[in-house]
């Protein structure tokens, strides 16, 4: 990345750090939502962008992480930072099981994507009937009230949650960069581009793909932990929905699949526009259900047609933020 790119990223980071000092409660909630989608988009990007595995059921890992951590907190008093390890383990086990079924039996491409959707739907139906997790009536985490900020239990002000999700985004960005430039990362890229050639030079396709699924599902589950304690309620129809899975993958598609900055940029494009659209609809007094989904669909079509590689590679090239197209992006 060029010096200009480093300065620009540092400036953006400084602005995000200072945002709670000037933003009102609504703007801060929008920024928190943006960062959440940037985080889970980065997690999904590890599978699809780095190793070429299309998952359309990532809501499964969000839901498992959310329900596992919330249940441990409500039923046993185990805080989210301890419960997140159980949440990540549960999501990783589910992801590896799906990957094992798919990779061992040669389920690839769109068929693997359908397999991920199927498991997310099974989880949605299952949690709808598990009363220990609240069932269809929802699972609720007690609100702390005016007890102040409690980072250990993720109880506190919107500013606390904002800085937590910002830290998670930065950590995911750093981890993704390290992974992408590691031996495993190069194996992922080889598997993504030419799996037969990669196997011919000694890359274990099964292990490389399972590793991508494990990392992606674990990171996504951590996003689920944050979601549970931020909203304090969980409903299977929302958490495991196909719509949520689509919302997770859109930032990476819009920003640039396989890039580091793409999922973050895509989240900052889509989520504010979606919120603006919702605000304008409410201001007019019309009830138009599904319009936001229509907007996302149109945005996706426009990006695929005019910027098939995503917005970030084009923007980085135009502004001279990278030394070569795609380098360190």
UniProtKB/TrEMBL annotation:
CDD domains recorded: TM_PBP1_LivM_like
Q: Which UniProt keywords apply?
A: Cell membrane, Membrane, Transmembrane, Transmembrane helix
Q: Which domain of life is it from?
A: Bacteria
Annotated compartments:
Cell membrane
Q: Which Pfam families match?
A: BPD_transp_2 (PF02653)
Query: Could you list the residue ranges that cross the membrane?
Result: 33-53, 60-78, 84-103, 160-180, 210-229, 249-273, 294-315
Main localization, broad class: membrane
Q: Which InterPro entries match?
A: ABC_transp_permease, LivM-like
- Asked whether the UniProt record includes Hydrolase among its keywords, one would answer no
What is the topology of this protein in the membrane according to its UniProt annotation?
Answer: Multi-pass membrane protein
Q: Does the keyword Cell membrane apply?
A: yes
The name of this protein is Branched-chain amino acid ABC transporter permease
